[in-house]
Amino acid sequence: MPYASLRDFISHLENQGRLVRVSHPVSPELEMTEIQTRLLAEEGPAVLFENVVHQDGTPYGIPVLVNLFGTVERVALGMERTPEQLREVGETLAFLRQPEPPASLKEAWSNLPLLKTVMAMKPKNVSSAPCQEVVLTGDDIDLAKLPIQTCWPGEPAPLITWPLVVTKGPGDEKTDVYNLGIYRMQVLGKDKTLMRWLKHRGGAQHYARWKNQKPDPLPAAVVLGSDPGTIIAAVTPVPDTLSEYQFAGLLRGKKVELVDCKTVPLKVPANAEIILEGFVSLDEYGDEGPYGDHTGYYNSVEPFPIFTVTAITMRKNPIYLSTFTGRPPDEPSVLGEALNEVFIPLIQQQFPEITDFWLPPEGCSYRIAVVSMKKAYPGHAKRVMLGVWSYLRQFMYTKWVIVVDDDINARDWKDVMWAVSTKMDPARDITVIEGTPIDYLDFASPESGLGSKIGLDATDKWEPETKREWGEEIRMDQEVIDKVDDIWADLGLPGSGKAIWKK
To answer: How far is the C-alpha of 218 from the C-alpha of 211, rounded, in Å?
Structure first.
């Protein structure tokens, strides 16, 4: 059965031994981060801190859930799948992004059920909801009552780290449908935060179009703790013309139930834990940071618009969902590792010659990509590099693209480094592109938000890429490989005895 709420997922994880409750007093100021770093390093369980306290020891009265998606297995479980089934999600997304004309009537009929399912997953509206059992407005609004995490030393204020920010564009175009994005929010006071969204993200694009067409601030709602399908939909590369609410229904196999907000014209998940309703100012900004980020550094201070809270609604006994970002491993890097499998069918749809695509977690989720491909002509590797940078906006900040042949394991650094060291001439096989968009958090770039990218062609070279005769790689005779496979068990040697040669 689909998880109807975060609580359903918590119960499932706890029954399987994948969640631990902690009753010992723990502060959200730095202590939770230190505990999470140790859990993530060893693929530990999700944790529900039941006794969260202020620095003076007084209780918040609201438990905090952390490390929810601390393993790829739990990310997949949130979609009610196994890690091996994640690529199927990407195949569905590839079809939704750009459905190809059916090759036959039979194929058209086979696609019909998926299209019907997508259309049937439009959210269901309800008139009352658990997320509105408690409604706080006016002077009762106080963000300090929430156990908002302070992740790293020296940060200027607590930071909301797992918000699903709900926005809607100014018009009726398909790109103005409901968007869910995760944008961290620095607390400024009882009823104000900053809304840190980068310009290429869906919420920021709604904001830019709204600012061009409307005089009033942009309505927004912040969901703190929803069912796992809705959370994961918010970080998945859903087509701009499809709402994350609808895709969440597809992931869950059941429509998302939505309820009207109390003070803004938006709809939010009825079974959520906590909702912050409010408006994003069109002309009032504040400096955000410095905060510890997924790069392992503190980010530079940049201005972002101010979000003013007009209501806090919640369950009677809510659970606060939190996380931190830092040098991998952190939850974003684990999510990136899981979503890597979702990206592959999307890229293969445009470039079928790609056989594998790998975003190493230590590359800060997306800054390094390794691509294996079936090379078909000279210069083919460079075409693939340019395709990676341009096809999905998720990879506009990818600095390094390493392209290898399909007989190289793109996920094995030993294999990749061998290809780099034996198949590359630095002057010939390195492509550098300057003046491109770069994450402003990247201090290595010469200008904030603008820098260069590099592509490494570590494939075999073909005429006219080289004038020299290309070397022949060493490989054992297949009959000898087969013979040793047959006798390995009789040799009395340790290890699996698996052959090192690729087919």
So the answer is: 8
